[in-house]
Design brief:
This protein has five helices and six strands; from the N terminus they run H-E-E-E-H-E-H-E-E-H-H. It is an alpha+beta fold. It has one domain: Aspartate Aminotransferase, domain 1, CATH 3.90.1150.30. Strands 1-2-3-4-6-5 form a six-stranded antiparallel β-sheet, with helices on both faces. The protein is globular, with a radius of gyration of 14 Å.
């Protein structure tokens, strides 16, 4: 069964300081005004083959610590992770919600939140 935006909402709900906002491209999740996860929109700047995929199914992107982390995920699971979208919000990785493992989704969203959250919120979550 494909993951949905409601699955992300359930993952984000307990994260301290996290909030959802509507953005031009769809839903986005932020902590202290810093985006950590968002729905990908088929922007003209995205390569045509990926833009077609994004237009046809739900794709979400999350922050990653380094660009190399995104490249490693793409290399390990090219059927799940997209090789590129836009240069905005780098470093990040985009993935197909229909193909992502539910446990991996939790890890991706939570780690993205940790990258953007200030120390005091990370400490609150860890305790």
């Amino acid at each position: 069964m494909a993951a949905t935006l409601d699955d992300i909402r359930r993952i984000v709900a307990p994260l301290p300081g996290a909030e959802e906002r509507a953005a031009t491209g769809g839903a986005s999740w932020l902590v202290r005004s810093k985006p950590f996860a968002w729905e990908v929109h088929p922007w003209p700047s995205i390569p045509a083959d990926i833009r077609a995929l994004v237009a046809s199914e739900l794709v979400v992107a999350v922050k990653v610590e380094q660009r190399e982390d995104a490249l490693a995920l793409v290399e390990m699971q090219p059927e799940v992770f997209l090789r590129t979208t836009t240069a905005w919000n780098e470093p990040k990785v985009a993935f197909r919600m229909v193909a992502v493992d539910p446990e991996h989704l939790v890890e991706l969203v939570t780690e993205a939140w940790r990258l953007q959250a200030p120390k005091y919120l990370r400490r609150e979550w860890d305790s």
